[in-house]
């Protein structure tokens, strides 16, 4: 293996067939990882410290269309059954879209998830007010957003897969940027709900102190 230093780059070039195979396998496994240069007894070593997105704390766009199944799970459209106010919902989207309808129609939307839930709710527009548990709530108000907060909290506390997916994002910033943002609950509000819940769950599980210890 030939090693050269070119300004800010350490360049590795194989000079044997075995070296070429070794380098190819290394690149295949660790192409998106970051390493720290360490020296011990005059020997230089590259020690892996984590995958690049995690180490660089890159933001994650939470979309159901993501190829990552855990990201899909975090999304409101994900199939993550939970119960709220004595009703079972297959997804947060089914709950949220159901608020547009009268009570008898909400049961039907509660059984939906994914694009089917979004499409079913997209058939009509929100009126100025909704009713939930006999309370009149203005659409787009903090009270309305509080219902989303409650639905998400029930989802992430009751559904193990959803909670695991959320915690696996670590402390990376989350955002929600679909093709067309919602006028009723903007993506920034929704992402804030997810990150606040994640912070609470991490604190309850002692994960915040663990992170601080790793930084020392």
What features would you describe in this structure?
With 216 residues, the chain is an alpha+beta fold. The protein contains ten helices and ten strands. The protein has helices at 17-30, 52-55, 69-74, 92-98, 103-110, 114-121, 142-158, 160-167, 187-204, 207-215; strands at residues 2-6, 9-13, 33-40, 43-51, 60-61, 82-84, 87-89, 129-132, 135-138, 174-175. The strands form five sheets. The chain has a two-stranded antiparallel ribbon. Helix 4 (92-98) runs parallel beside helix 6 and helix 7 packs across helix 9 (187-204). The radius of gyration is 23 Å and the shape is elongated.
List the topology elements.
Layout: E1 2-6, E2 9-13, H1 17-30, E3 33-40, E4 43-51, H2 52-55, E5 60-61, H3 69-74, E6 82-84, E7 87-89, H4 92-98, H5 103-110, H6 114-121, E8 129-132, E9 135-138, H7 142-158, H8 160-167, E10 174-175, H9 187-204, H10 207-215
Parallel strand pairs: 5-10
Antiparallel strand pairs: 1-2, 3-4, 6-7, 8-9
Helix pairs in contact: 4-5, 4-6, 7-8, 7-9
Summary keywords:
two-stranded antiparallel sheet, alpha+beta, disordered C terminus, 10 helices
Mean pLDDT: 89
Give the H and E element order. Answer: EEHEEHEHEEHHHEEHHEHH
- How many helical elements? 10
Q: Radius of gyration in whole Å, from Cα?
A: 23 Å
Total strands:
10
Helix content, binned percent: 40-55%
Beta-sheet strand percentage? 15-25%
**Looking across the biggest beta sheet, what order are the strands in?**
1-2
Termini Cα gap: 35 Å
What does the largest sheet look like?
2 strands, antiparallel
Residue windows where pLDDT falls under 50 for at least 5 positions: 212-216
Shape: elongated
Class of secondary structure makeup = alpha+beta
């Amino acid at each position: 293996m030939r090693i050269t230093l070119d300004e800010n780059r350490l360049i590795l070039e194989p000079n044997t067939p075995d070296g070429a195979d070794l380098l190819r396998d290394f690149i295949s496994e660790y192409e998106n990882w970051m390493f720290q240069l360490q020296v011990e007894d005059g020997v230089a070593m590259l020690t892996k410290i984590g995958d690049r997105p995690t180490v660089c704390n890159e933001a994650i766009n939470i979309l159901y269309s993501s190829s990552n199944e855990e990201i899909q799970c975090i999304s409101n459209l994900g199939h993550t059954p939970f119960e709220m106010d004595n009703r079972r919902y297959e997804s947060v989207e089914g709950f949220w879209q159901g608020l547009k309808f009268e009570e008898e129609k909400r049961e039907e939307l509660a059984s939906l998830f994914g694009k089917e839930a979004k499409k079913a709710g997209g058939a009509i527009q929100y009126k100025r007010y909704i009713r939930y548990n006999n309370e009149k709530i203005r659409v787009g108000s903090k009270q309305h957003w509080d219902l989303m907060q409650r639905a998400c909290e029930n989802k992430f506390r009751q559904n193990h897969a959803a909670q695991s997916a959320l915690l696996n994002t670590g402390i990376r910033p989350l955002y929600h940027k679909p093709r067309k943002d919602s006028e009723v609950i903007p993506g920034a509000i929704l992402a804030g709900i997810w990150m606040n819940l994640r912070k609470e769950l991490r604190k309850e599980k002692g994960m915040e102190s663990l992170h601080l210890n790793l930084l020392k």
